[in-house]
Write the structure tokens for this entry.
Amino acid sequence: MDGFTSAVKAICAASAAVCLIEYITSGSQLKRQVKMLLDLIMAVVVLTPFVSGNAVFELPELSELEPPRLEAAAELYNEELCRQTAENIGAVLHEQIKAAGIDCESIDIEINISPGGSISIIRVTVMADNFADAAEIIRNSLGDDTEVADGNS
């Protein structure tokens, strides 16, 4: 790594020197000859680390590389889909309960999304001033068999 660092420093210094000398000789008759000489010097500076063996690049073995973990990505996607779906359903239910004049602190929804894409609402936990009316609104929206739990108890 130390050899590579010194090679980079040498290339930067040579580039700065080339720019300075080209600027100085820009109006002279020797411009083309100086440009060719500077290009040769730059080529030597750039190639020196490779010729001397200081720059060694090794490619990793293909067997060392792990295939991407698609299962983990799919699991993260499903978790986020469940979270976002529960959040959206909760927001709609909260608006319905609020429209009925019931003060609702929070709605927590537990859902399951099957591999086929069907959404099953497992339980709805609601914290509201009037739990019975809020539960009735939730059951009217989601179905009579929906389990509604009182979050105040």
User: Anything to note?
Assistant: The chain has four helices and three strands.
